[in-house]
Amino acid sequence: MKKHISKLIIAAVIWLGLTAPVMAQGRIATIDLRKVFENYWKKAEADNALQDRAQEMDKEFKNLADDYKKAKDDYVKLQAQAADQAVAADERDKRKKAAEAKLLEIRESEQTIESFRRQASATLDEQKRRMRDKIIGEIKTVVNAKAKTASYTFVIDVSAESLTSTPVLMYANGENDITDDVLSQLNATAPAGSAKPSDKPADKSDKAPDKTKK
Fold it and tell me: 213, 46, 33: which is closest to 113 by C-alpha?
């Protein structure tokens, strides 16, 4: 009898161990977060704003680069004038000092350009990060509300990848996919005439101005 009871207890423990995870799992929904993020109208608006800022920086950078080139050209002329033996020694000394001052100006210009390049890159990266965090936060708010309404215990991102760039979720039948519902709700707030993801190319939106060629 004792042996029989022991076997029943062991069987019950095994059964509970196998079924507990399933019982605790609850309802699961899936979402393609990448699709929602890329097609949310605010993402297109943010990309356009980022690209506009990058273009403004490009103009500022070009002005600095033009000034730098002019200073180099002036330096070459001053050097030639300082070496002109047809003028008096005093005049050559004056021109030599002017050339040295111009060289100092060139060095300062190089530092200014490099500092601007680093700051521009940091500014664009920070603006892009804030934009991304804000949009992800808005998406998460909608997802949370839908999950609570439909009594989902988990919402899994099917577009997520591991550190080795492999899919985190290997299979989903799409039965409880809320991607389109979330995207529709988010884009329902789009004002008339708002930018769409393909309205404006954003190939330069996250690039800092190129470094001056010297």
Answer: 213
Contacts of 169 (CB under 8 A, 6+ apart): 30, 156, 157, 158, 160
The Cβ-side half-sphere exposure at 21, using a 13 Å CA radius, reads 3
pTM of the model: 0.69
Q: Are strands 28-31 and 154-157 parallel, antiparallel or unpaired?
A: parallel
Q: Are 186 and 138 in contact (CB under 8 A)?
A: yes
Task: Concatenate the DSSP letters of all residues of 160-207 into one string.
Answer: -B-TTS-BS------TTB-HHHHHHHHHTTPPTTPPPTTSS--TTTT-
pLDDT digits (tens, 9 = 90+) for 185-194: 999 989 887 6
Contacts of 54 (CB under 8 A, 6+ apart): 124, 204, 205, 206, 207, 208
- In the prediction, which pLDDT does 95 show? 87
Dist CA 29 CA 94 (whole Å): 79
Q: Are 142 and 182 in contact (CB under 8 A)?
A: yes
Residue with tokens 């002329």: 77
Q: What is residue 67's predicted lDDT score, i.e. its pLDDT?
A: 94
The Cα–Cα gap between 98 and 103 comes to 9
Position 133 pLDDT exceeds 90: yes
